[in-house]
Design goal:
Structural class: alpha+beta
Number of strands: 26
Length: 551
């Protein structure tokens, strides 16, 4: 559309806004990103878990190796969470290979998870966005008003000095969190619940604490103590640490340094320098709608959930990827209206499930296990620690969630061609790599060492697993060309086990989800019309698409 400042304006440059800018900018979409912060604050690390799924997106963007190089804690350093009576106390139990941390190659994914503070991630994404010619970053500015009409979105942008201008775009992505203006512009309302009592995040420097730790290496230490309960870990391998003190009492405030020393336990007389604090209350909130007209809500503007399990930041990135490639497809002329309508139907159920899991974990926080009799060397204290260790296994779902991270699917999406497959229930703690339409494409390593994912194109990709499919691939190529759909065709005959994928051909979306699978290309044009959002899929019988034209 002519006469606009940008094709897409992004309100907010946190993780969701930056991820959307990368997704759009890599496709040449003229994008303006508006972000109030001119710098990234290291003393408010917030998210520290980058999931397997998010790392797969970073790999697709060419940023995975750069992020690992920038991460202060290599995956090889530790893959454990330890529950203990104090950082210098006794171990109660531990969980291994937490948050998708696996030191070594795994057939199930091209990238393991990565523990890395959010400021490191944001700086890397800012650098990546700055290198994209089609993206303009307005730091030190804030979107303070949003209006739209049939043709465009008009955003009031206010600079730090108070000056105001209006930017016009074809679409706006509201990545401005719960306190921004985008949610009001959409008319969306949060619904849900909040935690019972506030928590306190602390960033501190403690020289020598790393050498004094009485426990093995861990990415998190959960302290179960009658004096203070919470979790803590290293921000780097020098002196910087983070802590979350759970369920603090606002009527009886305690100094952050005292709380840190209570978590550490006796034995560290060294200095503790508090660098930053951030009080917060767990919010389990989800909006009733993700879109109004040309404005879409992304990330925290659409959903808020506590950090238990490390899913909040990663869910935001997943939103940005979903709406990013779809908006690009529409603006490039090959995507239809149904593609944009599918954003809410795909992403809202994901957020709903993530919030439900986080809420369940919020009710299992360590203070419920705090018991003065845990401390000491008596036989009774040992028995109580053993019983506590057994009870803490209820926390396993927080640390082992490959099924939740990789098993989220879009089988009911209007832009996925259902083939009648039975959809198994999602098992949050384990991932089984099923290949029904809507699921994430099961990963595999090729005989030459390449990842299957590295062969996928930026548009749609047709994977051919049987060598006798030349007429079918030709049909897809012809129909895609007629519609202007970017299509990459990859012949995998003899390179991957065909039985893993359930059909001789699969059509893969830019986000690595399966859009269709089948045995022939007789209805290639109809399949492509559903997947690109030009028609609305109603039902599928075998390879026959029953569709109606969308608006």
């Amino acid at each position: 559309m002519t006469g606009t400042t940008a094709q897409v304006l992004i309100a907010g440059g946190g993780p969701s806004g930056l991820a959307a800018a990368v997704e759009l900018g890599r496709r040449g979409i003229r994008t303006v990103l508006v972000e109030p912060r001119t710098t990234v604050d290291d003393d408010r690390p917030r998210a520290k878990t980058t999931s397997i799924r998010t790392m797969e997106h970073f790999r697709r963007w060419g940023l995975a190796d750069r992020l690992r190089a920038a991460a202060p804690l290599p995956v090889a350093w530790s893959q454990d969470v330890i529950f203990c009576t104090g950082l210098l106390g006794a171990e109660l139990t531990r969980f291994r290979n937490v948050f998708g941390l696996y030191d070594g190659r795994d057939e199930r994914w091209p990238e393991p998870g990565q523990q890395v503070p959010q400021p490191v991630v944001e700086r890397l994404l800012r650098s990546a966005v700055a290198a994209l010619p089609s993206v303009t970053c307005l730091t030190g500015h804030r979107v303070t008003g949003v209006e739209q009409d049939e043709h465009a979105v008009h955003a009031t942008v206010t600079a730090a000095d108070g000056s105001v201008r209006v930017l016009t775009a074809d679409y706006l992505l509201g990545c401005d969190g719960g306190g921004g203006v985008s949610r009001r512009a959409v008319g969306a309302v949060y619904a849900g619940s909040s935690g019972e009592r506030p928590n306190l995040s602390i960033v501190f420097r403690a020289p020598g604490l790393g050498e004094a730790v009485g426990l093995d290496r861990a990415v998190q230490y959960w302290v179960v103590s009658p004096e203070a309960s919470g979790l803590m870990g290293r921000l780097d391998l020098d002196d910087r640490w983070w802590a979350i003190v759970q369920r603090t009492d606002p009527d009886h405030p305690v100094s952050p340094e005292t709380l840190v020393r209570a978590l550490v336990g006796a034995g560290h007389p060294g200095p503790v320098e508090v660098l930053g604090t951030d009080p917060w209350t767990a919010r389990m909130l989800l909006v009733d709608r993700y879109r109004r007209g040309r404005v879409f809500l992304v990330g925290d503007a659409a959903h808020l959930n506590p950090p238990w399990g490390g899913h909040g930041f990663n869910t935001c990135v997943g939103d940005a990827v979903d709406i990013g490639w779809k908006l690009a497809a529409v603006l490039q002329g090959w995507g239809g209206a149904e593609l944009l309508d599918s954003y809410q139907s795909e992403r809202r159920p994901v957020a709903q499930q993530i919030i439900a899991g986080s809420a369940a974990q919020d009710r299992l926080l360590a203070p419920s296990f705090a018991d003065p009799a845990l401390l000491g060397d008596t036989p009774e204290a040992g028995r109580r620690r053993a019983r506590t260790a057994a009870a803490l296994q209820a926390k396993a779902g927080e640390f082992h969630s490959e099924g939740l991270v990789l098993g989220q699917h879009y089988a009911s999406s209007p832009v996925v061609v259902d083939d009648g497959s039975a959809i198994p229930p999602l098992v949050p703690r384990s991932y089984h790599g099923l290949s029904f339409p809507g699921a994430r494409l099961p990963h595999g390593w090729l005989p030459d060492g390449r990842s299957l994912y590295d062969l996928l194109g930026d548009g749609l990709t047709l994977l051919v697993l049987a060598g006798d499919r030349e007429p079918d691939r030709a049909a897809f190529a012809e129909e895609a060309a007629a519609r202007g759909v970017p299509l990459t065709i990859v012949d995998l005959t003899g390179l991957v086990p065909r039985e893993r994928y359930g059909a001789p051909m699969l059509l893969i979306r830019p986000d690595q989800h399966i859009a269709w699978r089948g045995a022939d290309g007789a209805r290639a044009g109809e399949v492509l019309d559903v997947v690109r959002g030009a028609v609305r899929s109603k039902s599928v019988h075998g390879n026959t698409v029953d569709a109606t034209h969308g608006s």
